[in-house]
Amino acid sequence: MDKSKVVRAKGYRWQGVPLREYKAEGSHFQAITRQSLLGEGADEQAINFLTRYFELQPGGYSTLEHHQHPHTVVVLRGSGEVILGNRVEAIDRHDCIYIAPGAFHQFHASRGEPLGFLCIVDRHRDRPALPTQDELEQLRRNDRIRQRMRI
Fold first, then answer.
1. Domain holding 81: CATH number?
2. Does the active-site annotation cover 119?
3. What DSSP element (H or E) covers 91?
4. CA dist 40 to 12, 22, 37, 56, Å?
C-alpha cells in the first residue's frame, strides 16, 4: 500500500495538522507555536526524520538550548536573528541553517514580523539541554549574545 501523501498548506498553516504549543511548560520561550508536518503520524513510521514548522510572533523567541543531534532549519516566512554557537546571525526568508551538535541556538523574531521555519531532525534524538550557569557566563562574555539571549 502506497502511504505517500501531500499535506496542503494555506497561509503558513497545514490542513489537518494541529497547531500546538511550542513546549508544554516553561518561561524560557515566548510567542512560538509548532506544527509537526511529517514523521509523527501512525502511517509515517518509515520516515527516519521529523519535519516540523515553528512560527514566532513579533518579539517571540525559542529556548536557548543545545543537544547532541544536528538539525537543519529553512526559513519560510519573515526574518529575524539566531544565536548560533558563539555568534548572532541575521536570518531571512529562504536561508538554510545547519545547527551542529552541541551548538547553543535560539531563534528571535526581532524584525517586527512573524518568523516561520521548517526544522528537520532525526526521529530518534537526545533531549535539548538548557545552559548551565557556567555556560551562561561564557555566553554572556559575548556582547551581542548577551544583548539578544533570553532565558
1. 2.60.120.10
2. yes
3. strand 87-92
4. 19, 15, 8, 22
Q: Name residue 20's beta-bridge partners.
A: 34
CA distance 72 to 22: 17
Pick out the chain residues at pLDDT < 70: none
Pairing between β-strand 30-38 and β-strand 79-84 as defined by DSSP bridges: unpaired
Number of separate domains in the chain = 1
Q: What b-and-e string marks burial along 118-146, b requiring 16 or more CB atoms within 10 Å of the CB?
A: bbbbeeeeeeeeebeeeeeeebeeeeebe
pTM, entire model: 0.93
Percent of the chain, pLDDT > 90? 83
124-138 pLDDT, tens per residue? 899 999 999 999 999
Q: Give the active site residue among 82, 88, 119, 139.
A: 119
